[in-house]
From TrEMBL:
GO biological process, one term: DNA-templated transcription initiation
Name of the protein in question: RNA polymerase sigma-70 factor, ECF subfamily
Origin: domain of life: Bacteria
GO molecular function, one term: sigma factor activity
């Protein structure tokens, strides 16, 4: 059964089919919510906000119109708005990483110093993404983590495809600029030294 058929059946009273619709999108929505929250060290709320997203979607399903957007785009939009609402509520009380209990994990086979370096890089990238304006941050998460295409991202963010491409370009440029001092500085030193000889 397609999403459209399921939704039609649910609207006609077969509400038990909503669990089938949920199972199709639960992992993707949870991953999206998790990545949106990660930049604020609030990953522990991901499951709750994912559940809230599906609850809101169920309550509003009667108003969903396929001519306006695909179900997945509509669902991602609800998830994004749910996360943004929670972030606004929590904005004044961000928990520092040390207190959050969340530490990026490196593969076990790596030597301890590689694990530390990798953790630092993960934190630097996360912080760089966290520093982006909200629309750029959402766009880069949807593209890089959720692997959505430009059209889907445009629908979720309420932007044109060209605006999404522009948002992604600016986001990537900003992240690169923020990370350059950490990742590229050693490459410049020997080069500068050779130039002076």
């Amino acid at each position: 059964m397609t999403d459209s058929q399921l939704i039609r059946e649910i609207k006609e009273g077969n509400v038990e089919l909503y669990s089938e619709l949920m199972s199709r999108y639960q992992r993707k929505i949870l991953a999206f919510v998790y990545h949106m929250l990660k930049s604020s060290n609030m990953e522990l709320l991901a499951e709750d906000l994912c559940s809230e997203t599906f609850y809101k979607a169920f309550r509003s399903l009667h108003s969903f119109r396929e001519v306006d957007a695909s179900f997945s785009t509509w669902l991602y939009t609800i998830a994004r708005n749910t996360v943004l609402s929670e972030l606004r509520k929590q904005r004044s009380g961000n928990v520092p990483l040390e207190e959050s209990g969340v530490v990026p994990v490196a593969p076990m086979e790596n030597a301890p110093e590689h694990a530390v370096l990798r953790s630092e890089r993960v934190m630097l990238v996360r912080d760089a993404i966290n520093n982006l304006p909200e629309k750029q941050r959402s766009a880069i998460i949807l593209r890089e983590y959720d692997q959505l295409d430009y059209q889907e991202i445009a629908g979720i963010l309420g932007q044109s495809v060209s605006s999404v491409k522009s948002l992604l370009f600016r986001a990537r440029s900003s992240v690169k600029t923020q990370l350059e001092p950490y990742f590229f500085e050693p490459m410049y030193e020997p080069y500068e030294g050779m130039k002076n000889r």
